[in-house]
Amino acid sequence: MKIRCIVTDDEPIARKGLQGYIEKIDFLELVAVCENALELNSALKQQPTDLLFLDIEMPYMTGIDFMKNLSNPPKVIFTTAYDKYAIQGFELEVLDYLLKPISFERFVKAANKAYEYFKMNIAAQAGSGAEPDHLFVKADNKLEKVRFDEILFIEALENYVGIYTTAKKIITHSTLKALQEKLPPQRFIQPHKSYLVAIDKINSIEGNILHIQQYQVPISKYQKEELLERIVNNALLKK
After folding, report:
1. In the chain, what are the domains?
2. For the purposes of burial, counting CB atoms within 10 Å of the CB of 221, is it exposed (0-12), middle (13-18) or buried (19 or more)?
3. What percent of the chain has pLDDT over 90?
């Protein structure tokens, strides 16, 4: 499988760096390199494209504004020097969010995410590869079905965990790690050793606190960078 991609960045060094990275990845095929959104707009009319490596702050039009004006855009990995756009990227369902300077190791991680996304799409179109959308937990002497899309976050409580859903709180005898192994990793992140959070239920980030409806979940200083990188990655399994 080849993923056809376009690099768009107004900085020559950044374009050259991304182009060199792409050439090292066998499943990526670079079809165009652009300096701004206007050039990208023309390139998309000429080249079938699967994936954009897109800078945000550029002349004429930002990468975010460009995406908002496309009716059916390719999937996007943002490449930017600014983490302040993470929430907007999340809302636009981009695949990943790379902060400059971008290391090759981090680039490979983002490229692999893109590969898994397109691989899953192909499987879905073929009518296979469906994954479970729920789990069962024992609570109040019965097995209770918990849908992944209803989970807000999960909190470790010594030998138990509290599962906070859109409707209620469920207490079950388990460990956080045991539950984490049953959850789709693309949809959940661990911002703190005592919490698992559904990425698409995050309303905002304020300092080292996640706001999820009326709840507040702490962010460990060791996890904040990964959180910002992954906050936009929920598009893999969303809807």
Report:
1. 3-125 (3.40.50.2300), 134-236 (2.40.50.1020)
2. exposed
3. 47
More confident residue, 69 or 126: 69
Q: Using one digit for the tens of pLDDT, what is the confidence trace for 202-226?
A: 988 888 899 999 999 998 877 777 7
Model confidence at 19: pLDDT above 90? yes
The DSSP symbol for 166 reads S
DSSP 91-112: HTT-SEEEESSPPHHHHHHHHH
Tokens of 212: 């999820």
Query: 218 Cβ partners below 8 Å, 6+ apart?
Result: 191, 192, 195, 208, 209, 210
**Which of 103-112, 140-149, 181-190 holds the top average pLDDT?**
103-112
DSSP 72: S
**Tokens coding 7:** 């690099």
pLDDT of residue 236: 38
**Contact 136/145 with Cβ under 8 angstroms?**
yes
**Six token digits for residue 32:** 């165009």
Three-state SS sequence of 173-233:
ECCHHHHHCCCCCCCEEEEECCEEEEHHHCCEEECCEEEECCEEEECCCCCHHHHHHHCCH
